[in-house]
Amino acid sequence: MRSLRAVFNHRRNFLNISNRFSSSSTLFNKTEDHGALRSMLRTFVKREVEPQAMSHNRSETFNLPLFQKMGTLSNDGLGILGLTVSEEYGGTALDASAVAIAHEELSSSDPAFCLSYLAHSVLFVNNLNINGNHEQKLRWLPGACEGSLIGGMCMSEPNAGTDVLNMSTSAKHDKGNNTFVLNGTKMWITNGTVDGKETGDVFLVYAKTGEKRTDITQFVVEKNTPGFTLGQKIEDKCGMRASMTAELVFEDVVIPKENIVGEINHATLCMMRNLEIERIALASMSLGIARRCVEDMISYSKSRKAFGEELHGFGQIKSFIADSYADYMAGRSYVYNVANNLDLSTHGNGVDADGVKLYCGRMAKNVADRAIQTMGGYGYVGEYVVERLWRDSKLLEIGGGTNESHHKNMVRDLKKIDELE
């Protein structure tokens, strides 16, 4: 298995790029490896992600071949599908800061493509890497890191979203066979299908296994397991159209004990751990959206003239651009400050994990709205990217925790504090 440095150096040579971000440590690139990752991804996005973004948005299809280029199936693969996984299991052994960089860069062009990456690399791969045992990691992580397996996570249900502990999906213990029998339906599952016909390859599924509200256990369920089927592909979404979303159905699915991740009835800990890095990743997606909108606003305002003057000469346009840049940089500083200090193996960073997503989700939508307003009619049509980014941004106020849930969580924890640092 190639080392992190070998992957980065090979990719840099393949793309014939220099590393303009790794010369010194900064808040946004804390080590040379982080700078190399950003440089590699920025070039990859411009050359390979950007040209396909609009067409897959319009067709509501997932670009599997491009997704697999982020693994290690080919010699020119990026090697970032297992960004936080140790090399022993096929990963590149980076951290929360690298997660933030990857999601910011990918979302600057195609947030939907990035959302599929998040579901795979954070919700499945990182979750299993942190909470699984050695045998489970050896079984599923190498394929997920190389890109031959596409993974996801099943938590939300038709009647249990924010109130996730109210889930009705259950797994009953069959003592005679020492297995669990899983029944229920999961909804809004990213990567639930990649082709609209069959389920994705492998999922971490949360289910009730006891009488108490918190008696939840996490299981691995693989494609083609008897009783596990695709309910429906969710069509005609407001945004994130190039990321496949599905309903998944479990009918008497037999789960062997080897597929139990973590302790029985104690998966809420797995859930809370992974929610923190998920929310940092989602906040970083907002950063990518905001940055691209600011860049496009600046570019458009220099090329467009009104009343004989370039657009950026008008006070209101100046306000749109300046406020958007300041909002973006405030969010960016907040995200990387939190990410740079996050230990993926622990939990207890909920206030700021909620905080970065709350702030950045709203910020990105506002910046995208200003970008449309700056461009007028051109901003309102699909030919200009900001229209798609505006639609994509709305999910980031809903998925991974609604704004309202962040308010609840943050105040619950903040009321325990008498004085802020």
What does this structure look like?
By secondary structure, the chain is of the alpha+beta class. It is 48% helix and 14% strand. The protein has helices spanning 4-15, 32-59, 64-68, 96-107, 111-131, 134-146, 267-303, 315-339, 350-375, 385-394, 403-414; strands at residues 151-154, 170-174, 179-190, 202-208, 216-222, 228-233, 245-256, 260-261, 305-306, 309-310. A four-stranded mixed beta sheet has the order 1-4-5-8, with helices on one face. A four-stranded antiparallel beta sheet has the order 2-3-7-6, with helices on one face. It has a two-stranded antiparallel sheet with strand order 9-10. Strand 4 and strand 5 form a beta hairpin. Helix 4 runs antiparallel to helix 5 (111-131). The protein is globular, with a radius of gyration of 21 Å.
Provide the fold topology.
Elements: H1 4-15, H2 32-59, H3 64-68, H4 96-107, H5 111-131, H6 134-146, E1 151-154, E2 170-174, E3 179-190, E4 202-208, E5 216-222, E6 228-233, E7 245-256, E8 260-261, H7 267-303, E9 305-306, E10 309-310, H8 315-339, H9 350-375, H10 385-394, H11 403-414
Parallel strand pairs: 1-4
Antiparallel strand pairs: 2-3, 3-7, 4-5, 5-8, 6-7, 9-10
Helix pairs in contact: 1-2, 2-4, 4-5, 4-7, 5-6, 5-7, 7-8, 7-9, 7-10, 8-9, 9-10, 9-11
- Using only C-alpha atoms, the radius of gyration works out to 21 Å
- The strand order across the widest sheet is 1-4-5-8
| Morphology | globular
Order of helices and strands: HHHHHHEEEEEEEEHEEHHHH
- What is the helix fraction of residues, given as a range? 40-55%
Q: Indicate the mean pLDDT.
A: 93
How far the N terminus sits from the C terminus, by CA atoms, comes to: 44 Å
- Note the total helix count: 11
Strand % is: 5-15%
Give a count of the beta strands, DSSP E runs of length 2 or more.
10
Q: State the secondary-structure class.
A: alpha+beta
Largest sheet properties? 4 strands, mixed
Low-confidence spans: none
